[in-house]
Task: inverse folding
């Protein structure tokens, strides 16, 4: 211990006497050390996936349980028909029960009528059924999901958005995971349908490839997947019923994922998996203002869930050491602390350093992120992508992606501050205000 103290003392004396050394140290982007371990963990998971694919001999026994797909509908209009038809046309020999819950039906007659128009075509699809549940009073997405869960009869339960569609093999590959009794949830790739509409949509398309696809694949292989998306979550129905379904409030997908993880210490065999061949398609905001509005809710809800709903339950005693450490690093340090660290780091460098030193430091940070993103994107193309030619076009915008990340994280700091000081989660389209106020504040 004394030798470490002496070494630190010598280091401080050296830095104090050599200003050039101070500048060199300032050039090192220390803030990136928050993120590097997460990349390494993710790459380790991807490597584990590659090894298992190469070594393990797949054995697919016939397993086609009854599946319930609950679609939460609110103001989708005729576009909801695409979602239902993509489920009717699934290549799946088992029964698919589709429950479309129309929230606030008196104000969403167009969506309700669009669903009713599908009744005549249902007999064309053997093993498929459609139930429309009109809710008179709007209660929000959570109440719609729980309404579907209470009426479901399938062994596997899919929670889906009314504006999401799916590849026709999605149910087949997703349901196969539940033959393993340890699997309680599955998710798959979410692809951006409207990527060609604007530059902002293209950036989100690349973001989904790197985070919601190759990112989730790596984390799932280590059984520390961070979140099962609300627009596309697949669950064992009996387990959902055991934990009481969804809870009131915003960010219901993260809340449910954390509640699942709280069983890991007592039942360490439980698994949440990622299926690369269970592909969904969704639309993202096409304008920059729409993107910022969406992320204001998403990022603000992170603080709401971590600090309000789960502040006493995030412990190694409930979720096990692996998920506890991962949640501290990814959920709290990376998602909550790092946006503020980036703001403080950038302002400090701009104020304290000569302009040329500041510019050199920013260039180093930029190049560092370009390299990380490039490695992650190559992994995505090699391991996850089933549309390599289409996805490879993202190489054209990849050099600009670190700037998009920087703006996103600056905005994330604002969103979290808005939640802390202004209770931003109460300003949400996910549920009426009276519902949000009844949730845990």
Result:
């Amino acid at each position: 211990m004394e030798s470490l103290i002496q070494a630190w003392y010598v280091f401080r004396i050296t830095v104090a006497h050599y200003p050039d050394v101070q500048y060199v140290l300032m050039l090192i982007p220390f803030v990136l050390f928050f993120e590097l371990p997460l990349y390494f963990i993710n790459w380790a998971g991807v490597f584990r996936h590659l090894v298992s694919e190469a070594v393990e001999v797949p054995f697919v026994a016939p397993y086609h349980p009854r599946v319930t797909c609950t679609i939460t509908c609110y103001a989708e209009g005729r576009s909801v028909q695409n979602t239902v038809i993509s489920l009717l046309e699934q290549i799946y020999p088992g029964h698919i029960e589709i429950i479309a819950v129309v929230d606030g039906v008196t104000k969403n007659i167009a969506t309700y009528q669009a669903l009713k128009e599908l009744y005549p075509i249902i007999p064309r699809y053997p093993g498929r059924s459609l139930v429309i549940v009109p809710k008179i009073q709007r209660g929000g997405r959570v109440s719609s999901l729980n309404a579907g869960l209470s009426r479901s009869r399938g062994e596997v339960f899919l929670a889906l958005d009314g504006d999401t569609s799916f590849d026709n093999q999605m149910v087949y590959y997703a349901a196969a995971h539940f033959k393993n009794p340890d699997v309680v949830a599955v998710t798959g790739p979410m692809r951006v349908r409207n990527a060609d509409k604007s530059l902002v949509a293209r950036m989100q398309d690349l973001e989904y490839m790197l985070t919601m696809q190759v990112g989730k694949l790596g984390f799932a292989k280590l059984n520390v997947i961070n979140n099962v998306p609300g627009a596309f979550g697949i669950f064992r129905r009996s387990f959902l019923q055991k934990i009481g379904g969804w809870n009131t409030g915003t960010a219901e997908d993260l809340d449910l994922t954390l509640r699942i993880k709280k069983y890991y210490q007592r039942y360490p065999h439980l698994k949440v998996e990622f299926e690369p061949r269970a592909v969904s398609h969704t639309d993202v905001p096409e304008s920059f203002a729409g993107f910022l509005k969406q992320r204001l809710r998403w990022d603000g809800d992170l603080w709401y869930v971590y600090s309000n709903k789960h502040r006493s339950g995030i412990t190694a005693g409930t979720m096990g050491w692996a998920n506890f450490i991962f949640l501290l690093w990814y959920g709290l340090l990376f998602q909550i602390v790092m946006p503020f660290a980036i703001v403080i780091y950038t302002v400090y460098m701009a104020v304290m350093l000569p302009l040329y030193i500041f510019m050199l430091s920013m260039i180093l940070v930029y190049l560092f992120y370009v390299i990380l993103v490039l490695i992650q994107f190559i992994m995505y193309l090699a391991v996850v992508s089933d549309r390599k030619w289409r996805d490879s076009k993202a190489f054209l915008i990849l050099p600009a992606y670190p700037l998009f990340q920087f703006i996103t994280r600056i905005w994330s700091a604002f969103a979290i501050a808005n939640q802390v000081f202004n209770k931003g989660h109460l300003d949400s389209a996910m549920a009426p205000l009276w519902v949000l106020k009844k949730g845990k504040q």
